[in-house]
Design brief:
Elements lengths: L2 H33 L8 H12 L9 H25 L7 H30 L10 H18 L3 H30 L5 H31 L8 H16 L8 H30 L2
Helix pairs in contact: 1-3, 1-9, 3-4, 4-5, 4-6, 6-7, 7-8, 7-9
Length: about 290
């Protein structure tokens, strides 16, 4: 592993930690909007109000342990895969936006290997509503392993995660690079930090717009008591149909508002932390 890849791994870890800390409360609201029983909440603000009233402020950070432990590996893998994918696609440093999208899609598919179990445990923690029977993360992990094993337990929802991550990160990186290049035209290669934050936010919004119905399916599949039946194509299609039957087409976008709101500070902090850390490491290591 060369020094450039190591730098990207370290910078990805820093970016991932920033993302979790900043974005977790709105992520909890999003997940509950996607998975709560019909009629339990009236909307995102009702989710926020009921969660604070019944479970307290720190319930908004429920499930944070899983991504906080795993996000370093997830984001390190993501950014490293993206860097490697760019170098495989083109030997030139300035890729076209189509090449950026392809590199992002490849990185997203690779990233699903770690993102799937991390998010599955997060979703199962967020799907607990403060009852005496709620479990700690250790018990959730133990139960999934004991009852279902690795493939149907720990890796439940892997293929829907792959299906989500491919368009999501194609959109994520394309929007980020497009915005960054537009700012560079005006401010030069060293764009201001605020412009970097704005570019990261644009990437985050594009991420959710590119994949949101698939994220709804992923949350439902990973929270369910039993693993999905059939091939990935079959269970994804079946779940999409079930959402539409239950809630109409709008059900495929339930929780989108908190997701978009979350994406602005979360993506901005991720990219800013990653880029600033990578530049710092580049100055130290020279690569």
């Amino acid at each position: 592993m060369d020094a450039s890849t190591i730098n990207e791994l370290i910078a990805g870890s820093v970016g991932g930690a920033a993302q979790v800390i900043v974005g977790q409360p709105l992520d909890t609201i999003k997940t509950r909007a996607q998975t709560a029983p019909a009629g339990m909440f009236r909307g995102p603000m009702d989710i926020l109000t009921q969660t604070l009233r019944k479970e307290g402020f720190f319930a908004l950070y429920k499930g944070m342990a899983s991504p906080l432990v795993g996000i370093a590996g997830v984001n390190s893998l993501l950014f490293a895969a993206y860097g490697v994918s760019k170098r495989l696609i083109s030997p030139f440093p300035q890729l076209s936006l189509k090449e950026i999208a392809a590199a992002g899609a490849i990185a997203g598919a690779v990233n699903a290997v770690l993102a799937s179990p991390v998010e599955m445990f997060k979703v199962r923690m967020q799907g607990q509503y403060g009852s005496p029977s709620d479990k700690r993360l250790r018990a959730v992990v133990s139960d999934m392993w004991r009852d279902w094993g690795f493939r149907k337990g720990i890796m439940r929802g892997f293929w829907i995660t792959v299906a989500r991550e491919i368009p999501a990160y194609a959109g994520f990186y394309t929007a980020f690079e497009f915005s960054k290049r537009k700012f560079a035209e005006k401010y030069g290669a060293q764009i201001p930090v605020w412009a970097l934050l704005a570019s990261g936010s644009t990437g985050g919004i594009a991420y959710w717009l590119a994949c949101y119905p698939l994220d709804v399916v992923k949350s439902r599949v990973q929270l369910r008591a039993t693993p999905p039946q059939g091939t990935p194509v079959q269970y994804i299609a079946r779940e999409l149909k079930a959402v539409v039957v239950e809630s109409g087409a709008s059900g495929l976008f339930r929780g989108l508002t908190p997701s978009l709101l979350r994406s602005i500070p979360a993506a901005a902090s991720t990219f800013a932390a990653f880029e600033l850390t990578r530049e710092y490491l580049k100055e130290i290591t020279g690569v």
